[in-house]
Structure formats: C-alpha cells, structure tokens
Design brief:
Layout (H helix, E strand, L loop, with lengths): L12 E12 L15 E5 L2 E4 L7 H7 L3 H5 L7 H4 L2 E3 L8 E13 H4 L8
Antiparallel strand pairs: 1-2, 1-5, 2-3, 4-5
The chain binds zinc ion.
C-alpha cells in the first residue's frame, strides 16, 4: 500500500480515502458517552489508529463502523455519502457528533488484499 495517488492506477490497484473521525459537540454541552470534543482516530485501509490518551466508546464505534467503509470509497458528487460528514451519538440524549473527514487517498493492490482473482479482461 502507498499514499501516492498522483500516478495512474496500474491494472490491479485501487484507492481508498484515509479518514479522520473527530468528536464534536456544542460548547458547554453535557456529554453522556465519555467522549471529549477534539478527540479523534484515523482509518487507514482496514486499520483503525487510535491515539494514546484518547479512549473511544464502543457504542460510538458501533454506530460508526457501518459507515466507515462507504466513506472510504470514492462516491458520486451528488451522493449523500459524499456531502454528509457527521454521525450522531447513539445515545439520543447526548449532543455529541462524530465528524468524518476524508484525508488523502491511499493506494492498494487487489492482489495484496484479496485471494479472489480479478476477472480476465
Ligand atoms: Zn455522546
């Protein structure tokens, strides 16, 4: 895998966005999920990169997990997955949001990420 996305893709390469997920909340709001505004983690390929001293709620992670693989992929400009970036805390009484920001694209090779061969072209 490499972070270079300025070169044309080779036959078995594909790209995914790296993501940053950051906790946001209205100033002074009472937070019920042990989140702290400004805390973050990143998604690079299939790996979650958490930061030392920034624990992350398993309930919040469970709410985010279904969306992260879709947000990693290139989407159409009119797709809501392209434009919408905040996920609500699963606690309906908690004002916390999780802002997903697409960072640079990371390049992967199909042959290094799957045992399933590509169809013959
Ligand atoms: Zn919350």
């Amino acid at each position: 895998m490499s972070a270079k996305s300025d070169q044309p893709l080779t036959d078995d390469e594909f790209e995914l966005y790296d993501l940053r997920v950051e906790v946001v909340a209205p100033p002074g709001a009472k937070i019920y999920c042990n989140s702290k505004p400004g805390d973050w983690f990143e998604v690079r390929g299939e790996l979650l990169h958490f930061q030392p001293g920034m624990p992350f709620s398993l309930y919040n992670l469970a709410a985010l997990l279904p969306l992260l693989p879709a947000k990693q992929r290139v989407t159409a400009p009119n797709d809501w997955m392209t434009t919408d970036a905040e996920v609500a805390c699963p606690d309906p009484h908690c004002p916390t949001r999780f802002r997903i920001t697409r960072l640079g694209k990371r390049r992967f090779r199909h042959s290094e990420t799957s045992a399933v061969p590509l169809p013959k072209r």
